[in-house]
Amino acid sequence: MPPAVHTLQQDPVGSLPEEWDLAFAALGERPFRARQVFRWIHTRSVAEPDKMSDLARSLREKLSGWGMHMPARVDTVHRAGDGTRKLLVAFPGSARGGTVETVLIPPLPDEGEDPDEDDSPEAGTAEVRRVTQCISTQVGCAMGCVFCASGVAGLKGHLTAGEIVAQVLLGRLLLEPGEALRNVVLMGMGEPLHNYDAVARALRLLTHPEGLNLSTRRVTVSTSGLVPEIERLGRDFNGEVALAVSLHAPDDATRTALMPINKRHPLGELLPALRRYPLARRRRITIEYTLIDGVNASTDQARALVRVLRGIPAKVNLIPVNAVDGGVYKAPTREGVLAFQSVLRAEGLSVFIRRTRGEDIAAACGQLALQGARPVRRALPVVAPGGGRGG
Length: 391
Ligand code: SAH
Ligand code: SF4
Prior knowledge:
Layout (H helix, E strand, L loop, with lengths): L16 H11 L3 H14 L12 H9 L7 E7 L5 E6 L8 E7 L23 E6 L3 E3 L8 H5 L1 E4 L2 H12 L6 E8 L9 H11 L12 E5 L3 H10 L5 E5 L5 H7 L2 H4 L2 H10 L8 E7 L7 H10 L5 E7 L13 H13 L3 E4 L38
Parallel strand pairs: 4-7, 7-8, 8-9, 9-10, 10-11, 11-12
Antiparallel strand pairs: 1-2, 2-3, 3-4, 5-6
Helix pairs in contact: 1-2, 5-6, 11-12
């Protein structure tokens, strides 16, 4: 299922300012008009030409003739008790169709900040509540990780750059007074690096100074470990886009049982690629580690994790697994999670335990299941040394 080739007429919301310039030159329009349209879309979230009130009617008609519109629509909004908002997003006019979810995550009042994530001038002041938005990059996912609802459902299609960016353009309209969008994480449905071209384009748009103007270091690409594309991302963005890698196991046998991608790119290939990633000074790679009781969560495995991370500027994000599959995969007890964390801390690693947000609306990581897809129950092989699983 190859992603579609980008053209401005087919994906105006996914087009860069210089592409607008070229298209407008070809139309015989003045160059500043091109930037005007770009700004309507990316600073005001308006993609319907008839609403672009400062354009000449003839130009609006030309743009309407392309069928230009916002390529995504928010169908429903669920608000959890903790303020997390889950948006169900559909794609009007798309032949591929499907729905994805995007989640707006406000900070908890007492949230211990990861210091790397906060150096903004208003950090520490009460005036601005910094919202993180989690966005999707595919409908479903081809990677098939056994604990993930998206993976179990399989890949239904790639999102276009416009569809990826539109999630943020629409999400921004739902911010509440006092909130500001600060971080975007590509941790929703899909494997971002499996849809590389659209994702790279979306990253350029989200961080464009004439558009949403997010700081590159506040946009995080999370990957299950597609090694050639990790290298490409490092080259294309000079290591400036934040990288998160879903590791989930310190050895190949355990990792392959959880994540089929490990057969194609085993740890012997992935870890050296992370060591070579061109990180900016004082930046670190986030290592995501979903803890599953009896599978990857023993203190021996924590020690093994310390060994494999040597030489990688890393911080570790521990995610107690969310049950997606009728509870087949269980998180360790709180004590188990803390024991795992303290092994890593004792070795000087920074470790954060990701708090589950929006649990009452199933917006937590890995719960962004396809609508209507029924996850199949799969047995998880026992591969961890001494890691028996009951039931
Ligand atoms: N495909 C990318 C990004 C989306 S998944 C990736 O795998 O990195 C975002 C994170 O949620 C990943 O670390 C993933 O492993 C984790 N995740 C998926 N299902 C989960 C679950 N049921 N419980 C906890 N974390 C889960
Ligand atoms: Fe895809 Fe990430 Fe889920 Fe794995 S964890 S199936 S890569 S979305």
